[in-house]
Nitrate/sulfonate/bicarbonate ABC transporter ATP-binding protein (Zestosphaera tikiterensis), 247 residues
Amino acid sequence: MTEVVVSIKELEKEYLSGRVRIKVLNKINLEIRREFLAILGPSGCGKSTLLRILAGVEKPTKGTIEFHISSERPRIGFVFQFPTLIPWLTILENVALPLESAGIKPKEARDEARKYLSLVGLSGFENAYPHQLSGGMKQRVNITRALAIKPQILLLDEPFSNLDPLTAEALRAELLDIWLSGVAGVEAVVMVTHSIDEALFMADRIAILTPRPAEVRKVVEVNLPRPRNRRSPEFQKLEDYIYEFIS
Ligand SMILES: Nc1ncnc2c1ncn2[C@@H]1O[C@H](COP(=O)(O)OP(=O)(O)OP(=O)(O)O)[C@@H](O)[C@H]1O
Ligand SMILES: [Mg+2]
């Protein structure tokens, strides 16, 4: 399972702040395989920027991203760092919207949206509005919306960081189940996080970034069986090992 899905080569990003140039990404070289890849880095180092460039919503200053995917344009699902549900649309409409934008007829889009909502245990909430849902349910809807377009690549930007610990843990397990079962047809998951524990719990590999401007400092393979036991000596050993690269 070492097939490469995305090649990131010599990627750089600079922002212009007034007349000052701020370098955010510096010579990022990274191959994304058919895998669950975590991108771990300190706050403000450029993780979201990297994800936005991968999603194609922002352009790099230098470097290239190549997708080794059968379709002409990769389908990319994006779960943003901050909630992005549209408040005046129902849950069903929120999930169906990107499908309709992709050219699917409204009726089919809604059927599809319904199917995915049931996959994450949200049947019965189709007609609710975002403000009527808990934080955890909203984030479930965000994930569902990203999955419903059948993405080849799923990008997650700190998807669990604004949730209470119990809800976050339940959602991590659910997302892993969906990924491992293959039901959504996703080829690669890229999850940004600043939690070593979360990265170790979920990912096949962890790319550790330096503080800004972000460079890839180290890529660590997580060869631990799933479901992972945080209390196992192997888990804790890897945790200590990774800690050395981010402190
Ligand atoms: N559109 C922009 N214009 C100018 N500067 C920007 C822009 N977007 C991001 N930056 C700067 O780039 C740097 C990296 O931002 P980014 O959001 O990618 O970091 P991050 O690693 O995701 O941080 P966090 O962990 O806080 O989410 C920050 O210093 C930020 O101020
Ligand atoms: Mg961010």
